[in-house]
Amino acid sequence: MNWIEPNSIDVNPIQQLNEQGVLTGETSISDEDKLEVYKWMVKARRFDELAVKLQRQGRIGTYAPLIGQEAAQVGSAFALGEKDWIFPSYREVGACFVRGTSPSSFFKYAMGHLHGGILKEEGIFPVQIIIGAQALHATGSAWADQYKTNDAVSVAYVGDGATSQGDFHEALNFASVFQLPVIYFVQNNQWAISVPYDKQTNSQSIAQKALAYDMTGVQVDGNDAIAVYETMKQARSLARDGKPVLIEALTHRMGPHTTSDDPSKYRAKEGEEEWGDKDPIFRYRKWLEDMQLWSEEEEQDLNASIEEELKQAFNEAAETTTASLGDALGHVYEKPTNRLKEQILEWEGSGESK
């Protein structure tokens, strides 16, 4: 009766830049792009640090920190093409920066501005709050591009908690059946708010779930920007040929789930220190310095430049006029329904539009 025993599926994470900042594999990335990846990661972290401070001061609303996940986000987005689509959750600041979203736009989003967040013109769909729903949206986008014979790949960024949602599995099943150009990029940061990874699944990995859908599944060190970049590059090549891919990027949410969360209530300090030694920015900077591509002086100049940019971005967002209810009503449907037209007329007659 050996058939009733669970199958053992080995998944070994891909790593090319280890915790000590030593490149153990090969990379096709140019020296210029190596520096660009680093600058994007530092910018994402500086924005993150400032956003948390601003929220604590009551100057922006609830914010979901990304600290610790810079390599996973920047490395993956940097490997995408101009025509590719990103479907983010609320934590993908780094990935969206790479694709052209401005810091001021994210500040506006955190302030609740109607036009805050991201733009489809940048190849990014609006932030998805409903856990896992963006996996379905990316699947639909990929199906549309396949139908139109567009040379584009759709990427759904989800967390490990999203893999417990039905939407995630429905998306993978549909993508496999129709062989769609889509990538599901799971940032396994070990926690879905206060729920640890081992309470999300009893599988040895998230990557192996691809086996059930007959698609490629791969696990990568999510704190290794080079491994993430090379993995996404290969995944994109497969997806363009109608072979969907599931990527599990092993990383860690170093901060709280959001600024409304207190991780000290459910996380042990020992585990935090272990992941702290795997900091994605520390190892990448050491690698650049060892190759004599980066210096302390350049680091100081970069941080000063980013600080000034973020200061201006926040001021721009703070000075932006708040949208009215009428503005919001104009963005519900492409063509207003009769009921919506009635609501617009009611608002216009209320005197609030004056």
Automatic annotation (TrEMBL):
It comes from Salicibibacter cibarius. Pfam families: E1_dh (PF00676). The gene is pdhA. Heterodimer of an alpha and a beta chain. Residues 38-322 form the Dehydrogenase E1 component domain. One of its GO terms (biological process) is branched-chain amino acid catabolic process. The lineage of its organism: Bacteria, Bacillati, Bacillota, Bacilli, Bacillales. InterPro entries: Alpha-ketoacid_DH_E1_comp (IPR050771), DH_E1 (IPR001017), PdhA/BkdA (IPR017596), THDP-binding (IPR029061). Its cofactor is thiamine diphosphate. This is Pyruvate dehydrogenase E1 component subunit alpha.
